[in-house]
């Protein structure tokens, strides 16, 4: 059984078709990222999954329960954790009182462990919380009853980089425990780090669902090479080389008797150096053979940024 099954989900607000025939599923144990630009319809799907609003047509099941059926929804929610986009807790009480209340309703098996990880100031009134501290309290509340599935709308918004890292490590550990996680995000480095698969939403329609590893593989490597002499794109006439750009390198290494004065080493080249960059999706052995023909000064090979792939899906109708 899939943890989440969304079938033909459509939500028409009248002026806006926020979800347009959206269909996807999330397997048990999967960490699924739901991505899209502002207004793409992510929160609309999430609120439908949590039963806060009804679809115009189509539907969804969560842990096998139909979210449009009230009794089934209640049964599902016992085993689901939820972190909304902007958690709104009662401001007149302390974090501890909020957790006590949630604990009494849903359980609190993991409360102490989560407080150690996220550490919100639970003895202060929520009114005095920073945005990040509200988010940390929301994370404790979402996970503390030891759910089977956690649904989060932009979980790291408001968290500082250290806490974002703690969150990523936490999600990794949860995946190991077999938890299913559905999260929406704009933070591409986070998606790359924590998600197994992503769904990309644009204007209410699902543009694609794909494994993160496949997206990265399809994007290829970004290669930056500095070569002795005047070299042009023809030097990289090879299957899988795209978008070659070559220019004289401004950063020419020191040469001659004083070359490498700071290190005491002599530079390997005299004369001009050309810097070339390209994206590579071909056979890495063929690339090495090609580079072997050149005198290299420097070489960087990196994964192409996921941003580039996402922009293709996020961009306008021509993307
Ligand atoms: N209750 C509502 N009534 C009318 N229109 C709405 C309502 N809720 C959302 N919308 C519209 O539906 C579209 C999708 O909104 P939604 O909040 O689902 O997008 P989102 O992808 O979560 O955006 P963001 O990343 O900015 O949070 C937007 O155009 C929004 O203005």
From TrEMBL:
Alphabetically, the GO molecular function entries are: ATP binding
Q: Which Pfam families match?
A: ABC_tran
Asked if ATP-binding is a keyword of the record, the answer is yes
Per UniProt, which keywords does this protein have?
ATP-binding, Nucleotide-binding, Transport
Q: Report the SUPFAM superfamilies cross-referenced here.
A: P-loop containing nucleoside triphosphate hydrolases
Domain ABC transporter residues, every copy? 4-228
Q: Which residues cross the membrane?
A: none
Q: Where is this region: Disordered?
A: 249-270
Query: Which residues are in coiled coils?
Result: none
Annotated PANTHER family: ABC TRANSPORTER ATP-BINDING PROTEIN, ABC TRANSPORTER ATP-BINDING PROTEIN NATA
The record's family statement is: Belongs to the ABC transporter superfamily.
The entry's protein name is ABC transporter ATP-binding protein
Provenance organism: Halosimplex aquaticum
Q: What is the lineage of its organism?
A: Archaea, Methanobacteriati, Methanobacteriota, Stenosarchaea group, Halobacteria
């Amino acid at each position: 059984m899939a943890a989440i099954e969304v079938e033909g989900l459509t939500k028409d607000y009248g002026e806006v078709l926020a979800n347009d025939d959206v269909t996807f599923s999330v397997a048990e144990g999967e960490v699924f990222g739901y991505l899209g630009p502002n207004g793409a319809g992510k929160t609309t799907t999430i609120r439908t999954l949590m039963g806060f609003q009804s679809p115009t047509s189509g539907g969804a099941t969560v842990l096998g329960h139909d979210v449009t059926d009230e009794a089934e929804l209640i049964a599902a929610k016992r085993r689901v954790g939820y972190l909304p986009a902007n958690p709104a807790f009662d401001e007149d009480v302390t974090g501890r009182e909020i957790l006590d209340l949630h604990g009494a309703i849903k359980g609190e098996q993991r409360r102490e462990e989560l407080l150690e990880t996220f550490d919100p100031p639970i003895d202060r009134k929520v009114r005095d919380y920073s945005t990040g501290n509200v988010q940390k309290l929301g994370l404790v509340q979402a996970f503390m009853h030891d759910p089977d599935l956690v649904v989060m709308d932009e979980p790291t918004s408001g968290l500082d980089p250290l806490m974002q890292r703690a969150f990523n490590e936490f999600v990794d550990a949860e995946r190991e425990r077999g938890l299913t996680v559905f999260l929406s995000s704009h933070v591409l480095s986070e998606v790359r780090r924590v998600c197994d698969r992503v769904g990309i939403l644009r204007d209410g329609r699902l543009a694609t669902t794909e494994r993160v590893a496949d997206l990265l593989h399809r994007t290829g490597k970004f290669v930056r090479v500095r070569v002795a002499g005047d070299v042009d794109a023809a030097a990289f006439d090879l299957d899988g080389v795209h978008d070659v750009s070559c220019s004289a390198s401004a950063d020419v290494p020191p040469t001659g008797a004083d070359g490498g004065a700071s290190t005491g080493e002599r530079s390997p080249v005299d004369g001009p150096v050309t810097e070339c960059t390209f994206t590579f999706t071909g056979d890495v052995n063929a690339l090495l053979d090609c580079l072997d023909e050149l005198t290299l000064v420097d070489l960087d090979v990196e994964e192409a940024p996921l941003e580039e792939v996402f922009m293709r899906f996020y961009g306008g109708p021509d993307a």
